[in-house]
Design brief:
It is a single chain. The chain is an alpha+beta fold. Helices cover 49% and strands 10% of the residues. It is built from 11 helices and 5 strands, in the order ααββααβααββααααα. A 5-stranded antiparallel sheet has the order 2-1-5-4-3, with helices on both faces. Strand 4 and strand 5 form a beta hairpin. Helix 1 runs parallel beside helix 7, helix 2 runs antiparallel to helix 7 and helix 3 crosses helix 10. The protein starts with 15 loop residues before the first helix and ends in a 5-residue tail after the last helix. It comes from Mesorhizobium humile.
Length: 263
């Protein structure tokens, strides 16, 4: 779906402009019901977020005791469109385990600005480093939307901008509404009686699972592709989640069976 469906001229929110953005929110909500796969839904959300100068979006579900932003069995894998360099750096360094936005999301209900977390005196230097490095990759400001479930699990949705400006309150309200609706629709996809989850793999996921199918270890795959073992394992776990497989071998077999990659 073309991003142009959602793009509007930049404008301030008062008056007719605010009404125009409200209309776009309604259009986004309506269009989600014509979507059949989580990846397509994420693409729709990403296009909608461009209305608010947010080219980068990330979503991930976490279990009650899960510290890192990794896939939860039965849910779609982490979905994000962050720059490849930052995505690989983030998981290679294990930043998902010290990301202050995740820690803050466990304690919050409403959306919050990253600047609030950065300036909080309880935030450690290691946690601030995550946000500092994100800025070097272009993610200079953002908000996080906590999405809590009844069983203690929760998801987090991040929207990021390249500029240093703060998000307007109404912008946060619109994005929070879109994130909540996205989360509810994804939950429907995760229902085994619902729509079959996506089997779309990224190019890096295909590379990693292909070498797995050829009998290579994570260490060997890392050397071949020039990435760390942690990054290899991250991509393979993503494939396992998407294939609903309990081992990398089962995931590799399923990927080959579906014709997603070929030996």
């Amino acid at each position: 779906m073309s991003d142009q469906l959602f793009l509007l001229p930049r404008m301030n929110f008062p008056g007719a402009a605010g009404e125009a953005f409200a209309v776009e929110v309604a259009r986004f909500l309506d269009r989600t019901y014509g979507i059949e796969k989580p990846k397509q839904l994420f693409d729709l959300l990403s296009a909608f977020a461009l209305n608010f100068d947010c080219p980068w979006v990330a979503y991930g579900s976490l279990a009650r005791d899960q510290k890192g932003l990794k896939p939860v069995r039965g849910d779609p894998a982490v979905m994000l469109n962050y720059p490849d360099g930052w995505r690989e750096r983030y998981f290679e360094m294990g930043y998902d385990k010290v990301d202050p936005t995740i820690k803050r999301s466990r304690r919050r209900i409403g959306a919050f600005r990253w600047s609030e977390v950065y300036n909080d005196e309880s935030t450690t230097e290691d946690e601030r480093r995550v946000l500092d490095e994100a800025a070097t990759f272009g993610l200079r400001s953002g908000i996080s939307v906590p999405l809590h479930g009844p069983d203690g699990s929760f998801a987090i949705m991040n929207f990021a901008q390249a500029g240093d400006g703060e998000f307007r309150n109404r912008t946060i309200a619109y994005l929070q509404l879109a994130a909540l609706h996205f989360h509810l629709r994804v939950a429907e996809f995760a229902d085994p009686k619902g729509v079959e989850s996506t089997s779309t793999l990224s190019s890096r996921e295909k590379e990693c699972i292909l070498w797995t199918a050829k009998g290579k270890s994570s260490w060997e795959i890392g050397k071949i592709l020039g990435i760390s073992v942690n990054t290899v394992n991250f991509h393979i776990k993503n494939v396992m989640g998407k294939m609903d497989a309990n081992s990398r071998i089962t995931a590799a077999i399923e990927v080959l069976k579906r014709g997603i990659v070929e030996l």
